[in-house]
């Protein structure tokens, strides 16, 4: 069984496979930067439901049964998850070192049964369904008091770490809260205000890193962007948890996100990208100051030795320049709702 092991030098946790080493030829991406195609059968395509574990939840066409064709958005357990919900979470110490079983849960959300349709091709209505599925699964996972943090994310393309070509997202429920989550609560304790709200107020005033503003969301390139053209999609109304997103916000986010994603991919020559939803911890004592938001991070280059060793990212495009280009293209790229 895999383990969570604490890196005592960097104060982070690492998921470590302990039972069997994955040989180089079995990694999903080859050394030359291309996918390794072992089979022509995709487990995420409609008609191949028997190749996945039984579905957890799905939005389906009327009259269709679980684990059969007819689904629109489908959530399944990750077949190769490093996490499982067996037993109780307990950290063990061995002298300097700490480890624990990889307690948790990993789910896959497949947003379209068609293998050849990517996320930016989805209609706003389909994106709404995916957001509602995220919300539904977030709430269900948060019902387990052993879970302390829920990470929703999507990898698209080789540079972003995607191991399957068929578009999908993932949800991981963890027994530990990432250490960086303390930054926003500490800012509130020290300043009496939300850090993300303060950032929005500043960016709305000066506008140089502002990309777009909808009824419910603000899009901006953050001041210290780690990645070229990194963009945050921030709800204007202060809410700690993604699961608290309202119906009007879901509709607005679906339309805004589709418009932005099309703009980004068209403007930047279709890069790989990561989507990450940052949210508050669950099942812990309440801490003021958390404000959920979404990141869209284009991935043009892989991390180099300096970034790995120092933790300092190198961004060859200043966020002001990124925002200027994306802002202009967003104005030119209007979609019908």
What does this structure look like?
By secondary structure, this protein is of the alpha+beta class. The chain is 24% helix and 23% strand. The chain contains six helices and 14 strands. It has helices spanning 124-142, 182-191, 195-206, 247-267, 305-310, 319-332, and strands spanning 3-7, 12-16, 57-60, 71-77, 92-94, 97-101, 105-110, 149-156, 169-174, 210-213, 217-220, 231-235, 272-278, 293-299. The strands form two sheets. A ten-stranded antiparallel β-sheet has the order 3-4-7-9-8-13-14-12-11-10, with helices on both faces. Helix 1 crosses helix 4 (247-267) and helix 4 packs across helix 6. It is globular. The model has no long low-confidence stretch (mean pLDDT 90).
How many H/I helical runs?
Answer: 6
The tally of beta strands, per DSSP, is 14
Q: How many angstroms separate the termini?
A: 47 Å
Largest sheet data:
10 strands, antiparallel
Strand order of the largest sheet: 3-4-7-9-8-13-14-12-11-10
User: Low-confidence segments, ≥5 residues, pLDDT <50?
Assistant: none
The level of helicity is: 10-25%
User: What spatial form do the alpha-carbon principal axes imply?
Assistant: globular
Q: Gyration radius, to the nearest Å?
A: 20 Å
Beta-strand residue fraction:
15-25%
Structural class: alpha+beta
Sketch the topology as an H/E string, one letter per element: EEEEEEEHEEHHEEEHEEHH
């Amino acid at each position: 069984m895999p383990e969570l092991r604490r890196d005592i030098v960097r104060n982070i946790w690492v998921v470590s496979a302990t039972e069997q080493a994955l040989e180089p030829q079995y990694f999903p991406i080859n050394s030359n930067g291309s996918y390794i195609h072992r089979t022509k059968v995709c487990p995420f395509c409609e008609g191949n439901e028997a190749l996945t574990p039984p579905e957890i939840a799905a939005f389906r066409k009327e009259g269709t049964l679980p684990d059969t064709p007819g689904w629109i958005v489908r959530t399944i357990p990750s077949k190769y998850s490093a996490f499982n919900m067996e037993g109780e979470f307990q950290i063990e110490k061995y002298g300097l070192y700490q480890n624990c079983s990889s307690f948790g849960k990993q789910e896959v959300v497949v947003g379209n049964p068609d293998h050849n349709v990517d996320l930016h091709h989805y209609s706003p209505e389909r994106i709404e369904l995916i957001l509602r599925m995220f919300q539904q699964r977030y709430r269900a996972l948060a019902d387990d008091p052993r879970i302390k943090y829920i990470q929703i994310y999507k990898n698209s393309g080789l540079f972003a770490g995607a191991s399957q070509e068929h578009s999908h997202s993932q949800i991981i429920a963890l027994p530990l809260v990432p250490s960086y989550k303390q930054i926003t609560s500490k800012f509130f304790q020290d300043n009496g205000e939300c850090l993300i709200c303060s950032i929005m107020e500043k960016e709305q005033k000066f506008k140089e890193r502002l990309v777009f503003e909808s009824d419910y969301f603000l899009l901006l390139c953050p001041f210290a962007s780690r990645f070229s053209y990194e963009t945050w999609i921030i709800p204007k109304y202060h809410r700690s948890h993604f699961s608290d997103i309202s119906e009007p916000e879901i509709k607005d986010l679906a339309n805004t996100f589709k418009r932005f994603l099309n703009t980004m991919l068209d403007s930047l020559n279709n890069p790989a990208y990561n989507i990450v939803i940052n949210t508050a911890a669950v099942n812990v004592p309440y801490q003021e100051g958390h404000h959920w938001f979404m990141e869209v991070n284009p991935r043009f280059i892989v991390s180099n030795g300096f970034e790995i060793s120092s933790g300092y990212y190198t961004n060859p495009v200043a966020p002001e320049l990124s925002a200027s280009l994306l802002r202009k293209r967003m104005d030119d790229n209007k979609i019908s709702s």
